[in-house]
């Protein structure tokens, strides 16, 4: 099926061009013309591969999740699940050009979703899925004894997502983003680490 | 000085019109023409009161901080400082039209700051000031015994700001924003509450 493969590849190239424009100049710089120029194709080609601009934006946003998932797969998955979670979170922080571009894009999408109901629905679904996956992960970590189990996994997941978003956002405009990493790590550990049992006073 | 007062008031009206447009249609809908129409003045009047569009944006962003400060002043300031902090944080959440507009505006500014160095500087200064004020507050709360003192006030401030931003952002596109409040409250309390002393096993 060379034709289908080619079509998928071409769509990725065009969406990649959109992401570069958003990361460099903001979401308002996106037009069929600017994306075509960045991708090195004609405006007609952009329209052939994406029937609407919204279609193109959604595909591009999905691509940022994929990038993150791919990086996660390269991480050492062994050992303590809280440590692994922290390694995952650092992968989502804007600490190099690629990750910076992804955070800018997600940010721009969220800002736009706030004033466009159809985008809000799309962003909301993404958030809900991420919260669900995070809660499942935390529940597993609770069973393994790597994360406190006196709070619901769902509440902990909401907190972890909020911390991740908040720190990523602040790093975007920070003069030294990496300087915020210790605070991120301390927050997540403080929030999630198993409670120390009040042992040492008699038996249970 | 009626003239000066009038000038200040007119600037606030124009900036208020900009904020309404951003909250309703996004930052890309802002132009001298659209702001003038929303404010019910001429384009020339907008340019008379703000020499550049950037000037107008900055003034408008400062106004959102003022709104928040005004609401904070109306809160009961007595009692436990951790409880008071939680009441302050809820005031920053997008739970009604006014607060929703403010979060949308701050979001749009942050997204834009990511691709405009002059805006980044401005947003960064705002973040740093807020982090400083929050750390001072937390330090006072630590001295009062209302907040844990085994972690640095500065790190706790970073965490509180990140949680606030992250939850506010997620509420923007959430179908039921208020449903996230218990998670916000649980996160902040878990992170900040004084550690229980391991008492009950003999005397100290």
TrEMBL record, chains A, B:
GO terms for molecular function: DNA-binding transcription factor activity; transcription cis-regulatory region binding. Residues 31-50 bind DNA. PROSITE patterns: HTH_TETR_2. Keywords: DNA-binding, Repressor, Transcription, Transcription regulation. Residues 8-68 form the HTH tetR-type domain. Pfam families: TetR_C_6, TetR_N. This is TetR/AcrR family transcriptional regulator.
